[in-house]
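Example 3.2
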Amino acid sequence: QVRLVESGGGLVQPGGSLRLSCAASGFAFRLTTMAWYRQAPGMQRELVAQITLGRLTDYADSVKGRFTISRDNAKNTVYLQMDNLKPEDTAVYYCNRRDSSGNPIYSWGQGTQVTVSS
């Protein structure tokens, strides 16, 4: 059974940092492309960052230079380091595996709420 468990969200002031974690189980994590997505209220879910099995990374233009995605295959965990946070980063953040067409594969987890506000 596939499980994706996100954690690490919270309330942070603009300019602050957070580190999100996603613990995965039930599939061959080390052989997959993993990604972080986010969904703000009233908005569609969007791709934030992805990391391939070879650790190649890609980012949405809105987060380039501020967010860093990484993975620990020994722990079946993918991380998202978020620095210089802005109010527009406020959203629920989710992780998922991406298929060869770039589509998310599994049912969504509960996500983790990130709120950036003074």
